[in-house]
């Protein structure tokens, strides 16, 4: 898949008023967190400070994001993961469907929120709690993707091969992101994700 210029929400049905309000609150919380972390550092930024900057209560922050780590690891593309995967052409190889999904999300975030992506990558390298939470959330996402791929391919919901594939793809995305961050974000991240996924097809190049 080539990088997509559109936002992850572009092909999603229009939201109702309630959903738009909830999305607005999510975005306000995320933006407040990223600004405060850029100014003060991750450890020095508290949920209470984020809530005050976003003009919501701390309980509202936790209603949208169970942990502080979730605020910096979540973006709006997460809302459309399942619908995008289900919209892929029938008969497309599962790995290629996942490639489209992953590289599209990365490309969109780099275009629309580049500083968010760069800050997230730095935190993954610098903050063990963020890196650990990323591993947990990727496992949860892998389970969701497994169910969708099972539906698309007519396999059982707990099919081992599907579970292994989705877990491997999420692991490839994680390692590509860390590789990018560890090298001062100088490379093309979308190309690195393609390269990581190509490795799942044929193993490391000689």
Brief overview, please?
With 206 residues, this protein is mostly helical.
Report on this model:
This protein has ten helices and no strands. The protein has helices at 17-40, 47-54, 58-64, 68-73, 81-86, 94-112, 114-126, 128-153, 160-182, 189-202. It has 206 residues and is an all-alpha fold. It has a domain at 67-202: Tetracycline Repressor, domain 2 (Orthogonal Bundle), CATH 1.10.357. The chain is globular, with a radius of gyration of 17 Å. Mean pLDDT is 88; it is low at 1-11. The longest helix has 26 residues, at 128-153. 71% of the residues lie in helices and 0% in strands. This is TetR family transcriptional regulator. It comes from Streptomyces ficellus. Residues 46-65 bind DNA.
Whole-number average pLDDT? 88
CATH class category name of the domain at 67-202? Mainly Alpha
Task: Find the CATH superfamily of the domain at 67-202.
Answer: Tetracycline Repressor, domain 2
The 3D shape can be described as globular
Order of helices and strands: HHHHHHHHHH
- How much strand content do the residues show? under 5%
Which architecture of the domain at 67-202 per CATH?
Orthogonal Bundle
**Unreliably modeled segments:** 1-11
* Individual helix count: 10
InterPro entries: Homeodomain-like_sf (IPR009057), HTH-type_TetR-like_transc_reg (IPR050109), HTH_TetR (IPR001647), MftR_C (IPR041347), Tet_transcr_reg_TetR-rel_C_sf (IPR036271)
Protein name: TetR family transcriptional regulator
Keywords: DNA-binding, Transcription, Transcription regulation
Pfam family, one: TetR_C_14
């Amino acid at each position: 898949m080539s990088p997509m210029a559109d936002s992850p929400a572009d092909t999603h049905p229009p939201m109702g008023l309630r959903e738009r309000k909830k999305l607005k609150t999510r975005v306000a919380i995320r933006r407040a967190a990223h600004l405060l972390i850029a100014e003060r550092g991750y450890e020095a930024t508290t949920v209470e400070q984020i809530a005050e900057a976003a003009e919501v209560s701390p309980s509202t922050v936790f209603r949208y994001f169970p942990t502080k780590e979730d605020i910096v690891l979540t973006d709006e593309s997460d809302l459309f993961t399942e619908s995008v995967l289900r919209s892929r052409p029938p008969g497309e190889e599962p790995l290629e469907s996942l490639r489209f999904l992953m590289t599209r999300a990365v490309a969109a975030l780099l275009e629309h929120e580049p500083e968010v992506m760069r800050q997230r990558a730095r935190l993954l390298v610098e903050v063990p709690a963020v890196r650990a939470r990323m591993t947990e959330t990727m496992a949860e996402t892998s389970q969701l993707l497994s169910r969708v791929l099972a539906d698309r391919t007519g396999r059982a919901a707990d099919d081992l091969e599907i579970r292994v594939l989705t877990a491997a793809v999420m692991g490839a995305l994680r390692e590509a992101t860390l590789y990018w961050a560890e090298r001062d974000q100088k490379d093309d991240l979308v190309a690195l994700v393609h390269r990581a996924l190509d490795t799942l097809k044929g193993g490391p190049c000689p």
